[in-house]
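look at this one:
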Amino acid sequence: MRFSIIVPVYNTSAYLADCLDSVAGQTFDDYEVVCVDDGSTDNCPDILERYRRKDPRIVVVSQPNRGIGYARNIGLQAAQGEYVLFLDSDDWLEQDTLQLLSQQLEGEDILCFGGRRYFDDLQVYEETDALQAEAETTGWQYYCRHALEPRHFAFVCVVLRCYRRTLIINNGLQFKEGIFHEDNLFTPQACYYARRVKVIPDNLYTYRVRKHSIMTSRGLTHWQHLIETANELAAFFIEKHDVEKKVVYRAITHHYQAAFAASDRGKDCMLRPLVDWGLYRRVSRTKIRHRMQYFLIRHHPPLFRLINKMFEQ
């Protein structure tokens, strides 16, 4: 089997049929769909059962609610395909996605492609900055190039990549459970282990932006998890002898800065104890600008936010 498409499902009955129809309408048919119902309390179980009866390629796994990370891990355990894609249950694929991916895959560990946003309340599309086709490289070279100079809104999103399943299995890769931003850990780790990565410029995935979804209604817990993710990512990198300090710095500060830029005085006191200040200080010694950012985030978060907004304008 060429592809396994893993679809975590939780209370998206208004969108689930569109998602599954986008897979059923593919011009390439050597695939399976592993749907993991994560304890939905709406009509999702009925919709999944209806589609399962119509198409033997659809596998449905049901479980109590444990979150998207756990659901994806369960999907990975059930997957049988040579390559794995992740599809959120309120999003959809372009009709020729699997056909194009199959034609482009030549033994790569990861094949990257583009996507676009669809704003549900406005019913408008937003095309992302077009990806540039990139010749095959190692996953680590790919990660360093984009992590240090991020150009695209969804660099870390796992849904914009096709993964060789053995890459995930042989390196023990899993999604961290019970947190937001699980992609921020999985993507860099997968890139680190990947020997062959290729990028194609095609926008094959549409990400539905819902006004009151989890990812658009971000509260304190999101930013706490973002800082915890930075610490785990730094711990993963720092024990690798072939990783440059600037990559560790970027892995930490990108997350820390995003968390504190979106915070306020009332939340600073809850975020600051989570920061690994010792590690942050060590990797901030390379440039004066880095040291200044470290000092402001640690001692004057409001001033950091003010300066950050000035540079954004």
Summary: The chain has a mean pLDDT of 85. The CA atoms of residues 10 and 150 lie 31 Å apart. The radius of gyration is 20 Å. The chain has 13 helices and ten strands.
